[in-house]
Amino acid sequence: MKIQPNKHTLWLPLIAILFSGNLLAASNLKTEQAILTPPPMVPPAINRDHSAKVVINLETREQVGRIADGVEYVFWSFGETVPGSFIRVREGDEIEFNLSNHPSSKMPHNIDLHAVTGPGGGAESSFTAPGHTSTFNFKALNPGLYIYHCATAPVGMHIANGMYGLILVEPKEGLAPVDREYYLVQGDFYTKGEFGEAGLQPFDMAKAIDEDADYVVFNGSVGSTTDENSLTAKVGETVRLYIGNGGPNLVSSFHVIGEIFDTVYVEGGSLKNHNVQTTLIPAGGAAIVEFKVEVPGTFILVDHSIFRAFNKGALAMLKVEGPDDHSIFTGKTAENVYLPEGSAIQSLDNTFTKITANNKDEQIRFGQRVYEANCMACHQANGEGIPGAFPPLAKSDYLNNNPLLGVNAIIKGLSGPIKVNNVNYNGVMPAMNLNDEDIANVITFVLNNWDNAGGKVSAEQVAKQRK
Ligand SMILES: [Cu+2]
């Protein structure tokens, strides 16, 4: 952060601070007011060839809004939108940031801009009670596309309620001109009700901690950018998307169905990749993607973790108008009957989907998979455990003397002092969410491996233990 004066010149700017309340009053750059835009719009490109002092005024609010049809949510916002207003400055600019917290807010808020070089990205300096305005200054040292977000405790909750947006620091040489620029930010939301459950839905902290999202959306709601709210372009145009991921938890596998990114500014930085299908956008990160649209149609923007797109809302649309180009894409040109190997209806082989074991050998085989997925991390590959932490399942007298104690450990969890082969353990095994069949199989697997006593446990026995 270079705007702090060095020791020799400390006093002059300090006096300036005292009299103007503003360090950068000492600089002689021209002052301009930043143009801020709501999503999906982007402020115009900067065509200055010099640094400026840029004043940014942004307001935080807590307001009820639509998260899906029939479902409302109390969003916390920067500039009355989720994501917050798009901010565009130029590398080398000196920024005066004024954060106002609306008097109707119940919470204090602040802002951590990832474009800031300085403690907390401005968080401490911008901590603002309801009905107050805080001012701090920073210099935009590094070009790139950056997330900003609220960082007031509990931080996860402020972010989960929609307090994030993007700030673009244009490189000194500028960005290549394009025909269209749009602004999208993905976010995950956690509500007491399940996806689509009607009414005003409160935030669910437990689901947020579990990262069990009900909604994963672009620009704050299901359908924010679909149908009549779609992004638009014309055939032959180049589109640039500024894409962020506010999180709080999930990573985005950003993809446009039916397009290939000609250029991706990887992670929003200076590295350019080309011919990319899907780009990863971390929580608290961003990317710039560019592509020319060659053919008309509706192009679907998704998080390619695909259930999020079709079942939780992470879907937007770009509608492209213009003439077809059959040398690039023809559409369907023919449909014929397809009868491989004669006309008999093929039956699917069931053996892969069957989950019920018919005999002990199958139980052992299925149980091995359950073990590898659920137990091995603690009890280790050969059941040897880890001394002092996880007791052995190999030759365990505790288990072999009464396999149902193992069943209980899985159903209810196990904690407190126990003795296995005369060694004391006092750890915590969490209850495992497995069905009766899986539990019967995994215990049977363990009993028949690693020099254990053999025998078997049935799903019926497990069901009895649950009572
Ligand atoms: Cu906040």
Automatic annotation (TrEMBL):
Residues at which Cu(2+) 2 binds: D112, H114, H149, H304
Limits of the Cytochrome c domain: 362-450
Catalytic activity: nitric oxide + Fe(III)-[cytochrome c] + H2O = Fe(II)-[cytochrome c] + nitrite + 2 H(+)
This protein's name: Copper-containing nitrite reductase
Location of the protein in the cell: Periplasm
Organism: Pseudoalteromonas translucida (strain TAC 125)
InterPro entries: Cu-oxidase-like_N (IPR011707), Cu-oxidase_2nd (IPR001117), Cupredoxin (IPR008972), Cyt_c-like_dom (IPR009056), Cyt_c-like_dom_sf (IPR036909), Cytochrome_c-type_DH (IPR051459), NO2-reductase_Cu (IPR001287)
SUPFAM superfamilies: Cupredoxins (SSF49503), Cytochrome c (SSF46626)
Cofactor binding note: Binds 1 Cu(+) ion.
Cellular component terms (Gene Ontology): periplasmic space
